[in-house]
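Sample intake sheet
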Amino acid sequence: MHSSSPSSFRAGITKPNNTRKYMNTNHVRVSLEVDLEEKLFKMLEGEMIEKIIAEANYEPEENIWKNILEGHSFKVTHEMAPKLYDLFQDVKEKLRYCKPIDFYITNSAELNAFALTRIEKGEADIININSGLISMFDDDELRFVIGHEIGHLITRYARVLKLIDFIFPGLENIPLILAHKIELWQKVSELTADRFGYIASPSVEKCVSGFFKMASGLNTDRIKFDYQAYIRDNEKILDYFSENRNLLSHPVNPLRIKAIELFGESKLFAAISQDKDLNHDDELAQKMQKLIEILITISSSPMDAQRKLFVASAGILMAQVDKEIDEEELEQILEALSMYTVFPKEFLSDMCKENVQKIFEESVRNIISQNPAERTQLLEYMASVAFCDSNMFPTEMDFLFETGEKMLGLTRRETAQIMAVTLQQGFIPELYK
């Protein structure tokens, strides 16, 4: 659906009144996408990193792509391809995108397209469409694709991707707590870009037929494509994943199709089609929240829900034994929580407002009753929180022994052995006491 660098599509509106030059794009965007984009840019120290990259005078990746496309692809001009050129420009005008865009077609059977934002002043942005997509899609389907890609240009999608690629070359060694946020942001960014695609081509049928072609590689001329039947099947898929959620199997295309339906039926789209402002569509936001919950939930397993409660409550209690939660302990807890939630910091903050001791005791009982073999892992986690700050306190040792013996059913010797193994695996003494 998208490559690691260029923003990629893969996977009757009234003509705008030109008395207003710009569209209020922030009202079009999915609110979670806006929030995640801002948080990621700040978390990645975007402004500072961009200054460093500029001072280092690196060759911009967009220039490399520009050279490749100029040498190996066909640049769409009015003289050479007037029908395609007019179609692309019409989409650009409908979305009121004022920066120049160079459109290219590359010889590839893969049904894909991507967009690149040019940072240099005076340089045109780039949208590339593979020839297979041009051949397979009709004009309305193609309008949706181009609108989708311009949607990526409107947001800071490519800009944030560049930061991620720079800080984590090859996308390796990304901390799990950050990796989940990046994955969620990329998927929600597709929902935002699809809204711009729908504004350019306001037909659910055409959007759905485009997704069908992308998924199957089949031209609808070759089969009897029933988009209403496809929509019904899509609802069944969403119902299944609502009950069986797992981060590795989130159904992005079915979610995108449903999100397009909701947007097309919304007051927000009605206002946009009439060239009016609508600051917020509460009804659409509520429906989208329910849909996005499928993406946010890493696992719907009842046992994982109990493990999440244990990690948060046990971490808080263990860290507070010495009267304060320091930075190392907080990071240890958040890293463990990131296995179970995309927003571990927020979940931990909410947990602090509850009866932590009660939640801790109940989660331990629930886990042990279902899986007694996890006793060792539970104590290992608590010991890792105790030892991660390079300090050892008698009160922490007492709490670990008490938990091991009274709650987990371990002997004192077994508890001590688990603590010893945890020390050997990760304890680093404080060197400058």
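Comment: The beta strands are 7-8, 74-75, 101-106, 113-116, 125-130. Residues 298 and 341 are 6 Å apart (CA to CA).
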